[in-house]
Amino acid sequence: MLRNKCIRKEYHASKNKFTKEEIIEACLDLVREEGKSAVTARSVAARLKSSPKVIFGLFDNMEELSKAIVIAAEETFVRQVEIALREEKAFRAVGIAYIRFAAEEPQLFQLIFMNDSERAIHQFSEFLPIKDYSYEKMILSIQEEYGLSRQLSEQLYQHLFIYSHGIASMTAAGIYRFSPAELTAMLTQVFTALIKELLGGNHD
Fold first, then answer.
1. Is 51 in contact with 45 (CB distance < 8 Å)?
2. Pairwise CA distance, residues 72 & 28, whole Å
3. Rounded CA gap, 62 and 52, in Å?
4. Cα–Cα distance between 102 and 163 in angstroms, integer?
């Protein structure tokens, strides 16, 4: 099983007061170490060596704090995607970054991608634009790199996301961790097959 290594941080406050960012960071550390269920007013206060009053002085309730934690986790993920988008083979690099995030941050991955959606999803084409903050950049990258229409770019991204998500979920669950070479070979093979299926042509 994969285990996420996390260095316990020390939190300091002036007159027992903390910023929202410090509270959210403490919550992220709890999620990393024990999962989202570990985040309670009492556990967060204990991590900060303070009292729950500190939390509720900045957040109306735990639901508001929970939403802020998810947003912070998503921002952590998006930063990795932004780096991948600058690589030469951006589309493949993003797929690898997605799986690597699942390996390095399994609990954050589960928090973002393996929980119920706040909005009802009636068809899968609605999912990625809602969940992926880099969706438009990804579609544009595919269009520019491979000369595909928007419709085909969206179809390609949906198929590759489903495939990558399966690998990432296995990784986050600790079932198996693929090597970078394995990931590159697998994603390239699937990508090539999808291109042939969508266009009936051969793109290297």
1. yes
2. 8
3. 10
4. 14
The 8-class DSSP code of residue 14 comes to: B
Which whole-number Å values give the CA distances from 48 to 41, 66, 72, 189, in the listed order? Answer: 11, 17, 18, 48
Report the mean per-residue pLDDT for the chain.
86
55: pLDDT strictly greater than 80:
yes
**Terminal Cα distance for the chain, rounded:** 36
Query: What pLDDT, in 10s, does the model give residues 182-191?
Result: 999 999 999 8
Instruction: Please choose, from the candidates 204, 179, 183, the residue with its C-alpha nearest in 3D space to the C-alpha of residue 192.
Output: 204
CA angle, 81 as apex, 77 and 84 as ends, to 5°? 145
Helix (H) or strand (E) holding 119: none
pTM over 0.90, yes/no: no
Could you give the domains of the chain? Answer: 17-59 (1.10.10), 75-200 (1.10.357)
Q: Residues 177, 103: contact at Cβ < 8 Å?
A: yes
Amino acid letter, residue 147: G
Which value, in Å, is the radius of gyration of the alpha carbons in the chain?
19
**Which alpha helices (DSSP H) does the chain contain, by range?**
20-34, 41-48, 52-56, 62-85, 90-104, 106-113, 127-131, 135-146, 150-172, 180-199
The gap from C-alpha 152 to its chain's centroid, in whole angstroms, comes to 24
